[in-house]
Each structure stands twice: as structure tokens, then as C-alpha cells.
Specification:
Distance between the termini: 15 Å
Mean pLDDT: 93
Number of helices: 6
Largest sheet: 5 strands, antiparallel
CATH class: Alpha Beta
CATH topology: Aminopeptidase
């Protein structure tokens, strides 16, 4: 397992690192925002956000990976979470994302998604990557398409999200190795 305290990837504008307790205030604000949470489980209370943050931190220790906290290099500001995710019962090995609304539309999600896809393939050795996306979540669909993923049809999430409508967007390791050539930036450990 990686040394989580020193695990860090950098892109041109971002730092991706495992989440920690210092992220909680911004994490809770993110999960309290109705627009942000529309397609990713709904608004969460502070107590629920604490448990979600601890689940993500715990997944790093149990699985050796989970989503990264997304930090702006120039300010140190936490702006979202992105990266590999595969909890029990999940329909596949996912690279998922969520960006705070004030940082949406600036290319941060794409920059971090490319780094996360590279990490999933190159470090974790995943042979397939999915993105579970609500069919009405046009911003996430556009990001999946930019990455070269295609809609592979409806899929089901485990409890407590069993009633969520989601499609399985994704691509194979080989497809990503070809698709990533269009992106200049590479993540740097």
C-alpha cells in the first residue's frame, strides 16, 4: 500500500491527494449544496458529511485507493473530490468526480480526471473504468465524452442508491491508453 501521507499527484494547476480531516469544512459545504449534490446522493448534513469523509479516508486504508481531494495549487483551496472508487457492490471500478459549483466550467474536472484515469490504469492496473452518471447530468456526460468514454447502458448502484437512475459510461484500459494521447498534461507524483 502507498504511503498515504506522502501520496500526491500534481497537474498544471492542481494537487490531488488523499483526503484528510483538514478538508472537512469545505467537504461539508460541498455536500450541503443542493445543486452540487443533485446527481451524487443528495444534500448531506454535517454529520453525514463527516461519515462520508471518514468513509473515503477509510477506503484508502482498506482498499489502498479512493477519491482524491482536489486542491488548487495557487491557493491551497479544496475544490472537490475525484478519482478511483469501488465500494462493495458497485457496478464497476469507477473514476468519479464532484467539483464545487464555483469552480465548475474552468477545466479543473477534466485536468483532474485525466490524472485520475492515468492513476487507475498505470498505478492500480485497472482494465476497465466506469463513470456512473445520471442521464440528466449533462455536465458529467460531457466530461465522460471528453475523456473518450461511451454510454454502455443503464446500471444499478447498491443500497442506499438502488433507486438512482444511472448509466454506465466507460472505457477499457486499452481505449484509455489511446484516448489519453489527446491530453498534453500528465500527472506527476
Amino acid at each position: 500500500m502507498a504511503d498515504l501521507a506522502s501520496l500526491r499527484m500534481e497537474t498544471d494547476r492542481l494537487i490531488l491527494r488523499p483526503p484528510n480531516g483538514d478538508d472537512f469544512e469545505e467537504w461539508a459545504a460541498f455536500q450541503a449544496d443542493a445543486a452540487t449534490m443533485t446527481y451524487i446522493g443528495g444534500v448531506k448534513s454535517r454529520a453525514e458529511s463527516w461519515r462520508d469523509l471518514c468513509s473515503m479516508v477509510g477506503a484508502w486504508h482498506v482498499r489502498g485507493y479512493a477519491m482524491f481531494s482536489l486542491i488548487l495549487k495557487d491557493s491551497g483551496k479544496w475544490i472537490g473530490r475525484i478519482g478511483p472508487w469501488y465500494p462493495d457492490g458497485w457496478p464497476g471500478t469507477e473514476v468519479g468526480w464532484g467539483i464545487a459549483p464555483e469552480y465548475a466550467g474552468k477545466g479543473y474536472a477534466l485536468e483532474a480526471a485525466v490524472a485520475s484515469m492515468n492513476y487507475a490504469v498505470d498505478t492500480l492496473g485497472w482494465s476497465d473504468i466506469c463513470h456512473t452518471i445520471d442521464p440528466d447530468n449533462l455536465a458529467s456526460i460531457r466530461l465522460a465524452e471528453r475523456l473518450g468514454s461511451t454510454n454502455r447502458g443503464p446500471t444499478k448502484l447498491p443500497d442506499p442508491y438502488q433507486d438512482a437512475r444511472v448509466d454506465d459510461w466507460g472505457q477499457s484500459r486499452e481505449q484509455w491508453q489511446e484516448n489519453r494521447k489527446q491530453f498534453k498534461q500528465e500527472s506527476r507524483p
